[in-house]
C-alpha cells in the first residue's frame, strides 16, 4: 500500500519568484509625501528617516521626478501650513493658496502621469489640532462635515485625482460624495480611512505634520483597538455612502482586520503601514538588531498576504529604488 507523502519543495531564488503566493511590487505601493507652505524647503523628517517635507516649488518638482524615476505611480499628499495661519476651523485646509492646493496644481500641470491622492482632514490646520470643529472639549461631528466636503472639493478643483478623508467623522463619505457629484466631479474616487484605530503607532507622523492635538485625544472618533466587528460595520457603511476604496490603519498590528475586511467587501482594500511601524524598523536597523530592507520587505509581504491590494508606506521610495 502506497503512503501519501508531502514533501517540502526546495527551491532557489529564481524558482521562489515564480511560485511565491504573495509578492509586493512597486505598483502596489503609495508613497506619503509632506508638502509644507513656504519656498525652497526640503527638510528631512527626524522621526521618519529618509522622508522629507518639501515646499510646492522646485523642491516638489525634484521630489516628483525622483518618485516617477523610481517607478512609483501614486502619492498621498499631506499639507503643513504656516503656524500663524492655523485657526479654529482649519481654513487653510480648503484655501486656494493652501500647501496641498498649490502642490496639486503644480503636479497636475507638470507631472500628470503621477496619480495624486490627497489626505482630507483638519488636524494639521486647526489651532487646537483636532480633526474637526472642537468646542467645549468636544468634537462637533455634523458641524465638521461641510468643512471636510469643501476641503475635498478644493483639492479636486486643484487637480487631485483622488481624495482620502482620514478624519473619522460619521457621515463624511456621503457629505464628500454629494459635494463632488453636485459640482460635476462624480468620477473622482474616494479612498476612505474606514477602519482607523486610535493607535499608539502615529507618534512619528504627528511630529512630522505637527498635528498632535493641543488638548484631549482622538479616541472619541477613532476606533478602539480592541474592536474588530466595529471595523466591518464602518466599512459597510462607508461603501454604502460611496467609498470606492476602503482602508485599514495601522497595518502590522491589525493584519486580522485587513483579512476580515478583505472577505467582507469587494471594493479595493488599502492598508497604511504607519509611521510608528516604519520608525521601529528603522530604529532596529540603526541598533543592528534587524536589517531594515529585509524586515520591511517581510512586513509589506505580510500586509499583502493578509489581503491588502494597496499599501501606503514610507518605505515605498526605498523599495522602488532598491528593488527586492
From TrEMBL:
5-aminolevulinate 2 binds at residues 275, 314. It is an enzyme of class 4 (lyase). Its EC number is 4.2.1.24. The active site is at 196 (schiff-base intermediate with substrate), 249 (schiff-base intermediate with substrate). GO terms for molecular function: porphobilinogen synthase activity; zinc ion binding. 5-aminolevulinate 1 binds at residues 206, 218. Zn(2+) binds at residues 121, 123, 131. Keywords: Heme biosynthesis, Lyase, Metal-binding, Porphyrin biosynthesis, Zinc. It comes from the Bacteria. It catalyses: 2 5-aminolevulinate = porphobilinogen + 2 H2O + H(+). Pathway: Porphyrin-containing compound metabolism; protoporphyrin-IX biosynthesis; coproporphyrinogen-III from 5-aminolevulinate: step 1/4. GO terms for cellular component: cytosol. Its cofactor is Zn(2+). GO terms for biological process: protoporphyrinogen IX biosynthetic process. Homooctamer. Catalyzes an early step in the biosynthesis of tetrapyrroles. Binds two molecules of 5-aminolevulinate per subunit, each at a distinct site, and catalyzes their condensation to form porphobilinogen. NCBIfam families: PRK09283.1. Belongs to the ALAD family. This is Delta-aminolevulinic acid dehydratase. It comes from Halarsenatibacter silvermanii. The lineage of its organism: Bacteria, Bacillati, Bacillota, Clostridia, Halanaerobiales.
Amino acid at each position: 500500500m502506497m503512503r501519501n507523502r508531502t514533501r517540502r519543495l526546495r527551491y532557489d531564488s529564481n524558482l521562489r519568484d515564480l511560485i511565491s503566493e504573495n509578492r509586493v511590487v512597486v505598483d502596489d505601493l503609495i508613497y506619503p509625501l509632506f508638502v509644507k507652505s513656504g519656498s525652497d524647503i526640503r527638510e528631512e523628517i527626524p522621526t521618519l528617516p529618509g522622508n522629507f517635507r518639501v515646499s510646492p516649488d522646485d523642491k516638489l518638482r525634484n521630489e516628483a521626478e525622483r518618485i516617477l524615476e523610481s517607478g512609483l505611480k501614486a502619492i498621498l499628499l499631506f499639507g503643513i501650513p504656516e503656524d500663524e495661519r492655523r485657526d479654529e476651523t482649519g481654513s487653510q485646509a480648503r484655501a486656494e493658496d493652501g500647501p496641498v492646493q498649490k502642490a496639486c496644481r503644480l503636479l497636475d500641470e507638470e507631472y500628470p502621469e503621477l496619480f495624486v491622492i490627497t489626505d482630507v482632514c483638519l488636524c494639521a490646520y486647526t489651532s487646537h489640532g483636532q480633526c474637526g470643529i472642537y468646542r467645549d472639549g468636544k468634537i462637533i461631528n455634523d458641524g465638521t462635515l461641510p468643512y471636510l466636503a469643501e476641503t475635498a472639493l478644493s483639492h479636486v478643483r486643484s487637480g487631485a485625482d483622488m481624495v482620502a478623508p482620514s478624519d473619522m467623522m460619521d457621515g463624511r463619505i456621503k457629505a464628500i460624495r454629494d459635494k463632488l457629484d453636485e459640482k460635476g466631479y462624480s468620477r473622482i474616487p474616494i479612498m476612505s480611512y474606514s477602519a482607523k484605530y486610535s493607535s499608539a503607532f502615529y507618534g512619528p507622523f504627528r511630529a512630522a505634520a505637527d498635528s498632535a492635538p493641543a488638548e484631549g485625544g482622538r479616541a472619541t472618533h477613532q476606533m478602539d483597538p480592541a474592536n474588530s466587528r466595529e471595523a466591518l460595520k464602518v466599512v459597510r457603511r462607508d461603501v454604502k455612502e460611496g467609498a470606492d476604496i476602503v482602508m485599514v490603519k495601522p497595518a502590522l498590528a491589525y493584519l486580522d482586520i485587513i483579512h476580515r475586511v478583505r472577505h467582507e467587501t469587494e471594493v479595493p482594500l488599502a492598508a497604511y503601514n504607519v509611521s510608528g511601524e516604519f520608525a521601529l524598523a528603522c530604529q532596529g536597523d540603526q541598533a543592528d538588531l534587524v536589517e531594515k530592507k529585509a524586515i520591511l520587505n517581510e512586513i509589506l509581504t505580510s500586509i499583502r498576504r493578509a489581503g491588502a491590494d494597496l499599501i501606503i508606506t514610507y518605505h515605498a521610495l526605498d523599495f522602488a529604488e532598491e528593488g527586492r
